[in-house]
Amino acid sequence: MMKRFNLFYLLLLPIAYLLSVVGSNMQSESAFFYGFAENKETELNLDVDCLITSVHASPGEEVQEGQLLLEAKQTKFEMKINDLDFRIRGQVIRTKEEKLKLQNDIALLKIKLLSEVQELDAEIKTLESKIRLNDKLLDQISSMDIPESNNRNTVAHIELVELKNRRAEIEQPITEQIKILENQKQKVGSTERLQTQRFNSEKEIVSKEMAKLSVYAPTDGLIGNVHCIDGENVSAFNTLISFYERNPTLVKGFVHEKLILEVELGDKLRVS
Questions:
Q1: Could you tell me if 173 and 34 are in contact, meaning their C-beta atoms sit under 8 angstroms apart?
Q2: Deepest in the core among 23, 32, 59, 206, taking most CB within 10 A?
Q3: Half-sphere exposure of 252 (CA within 13 A, CB side)
Q4: Cα–Cα distance measured from residue 197 to residue 57, given in angstroms and rounded to the nearest whole number
Q5: Closest residue by Cα to residue 247 from 268, 267, 219, 225
Q6: Residue 142's pLDDT band (boundaries 50, 70, 90)?
Q7: In angstroms, rounded to a whole number, what is the distance separating the alpha carbons of residues 38 and 199?
Q8: Residue 175: which residues within 8 A CB-CB, separation 6 or more?
Q9: Of 216, 228, 217, 224, which Cα lies nearest the Cα of 50?
Q10: DSSP letter string, 120-163
């Protein structure tokens, strides 16, 4: 008895093949869609009201990183710098004047001392010469035995001591006053130097703020729009220049709602 062949088994092979092809196509499914690349835009501005003094960039111009694009000035910064410079010069002048005054006072005291002791110095010198002469004469008289104490207590010696004491009484107060003025002269300018250091520190801070009024290109790129002109007063934070980086840094793409994709962690996207 001959067995009957079932046609269903004959169809199994092509059906299995078709299912495997469809399955492989679904697993390696690709999709193409369009988007756009976007250059990063930076709005260059200043954080204070200012006057534009010079614009060095024009729309569409290619610029290099660090290139000067714009210069501006602020009146309050310039006034502050001028005020600090005036104060520093005033400190220098006052210090010089005070030192000069002390030098003059010291010179006058020295002249006063010289004039008051000059006559005494002449008397002392004359008396010392007279005493030396008398001492030589006494030394030549070998037959006389004169005690040394008597020699020191002669009228001339007593007068010499009185002259020297009088000279010391005149010299001491004037000399002490000169020393006081000399010490004052050495200390002149110490307070002024501290104030000048403070003024210079303030000036450095203001100078740094003034330096910020110059706008430079942050990177290599392109100038978009220039929103100011020379001589224009602009408000703080107003956009002065639109700046674009040379190469796109952002890509946006939109998938059509009819295009259904299954995305899993680790999937790759190729952009061209």
A1: no
A2: 206
A3: 4
A4: 39
A5: 219
A6: low
A7: 49
A8: 113
A9: 228
A10: HHHHHHHHHHHHHHHHHHHHH-TT----HHHHHTSHHHHHHHHH
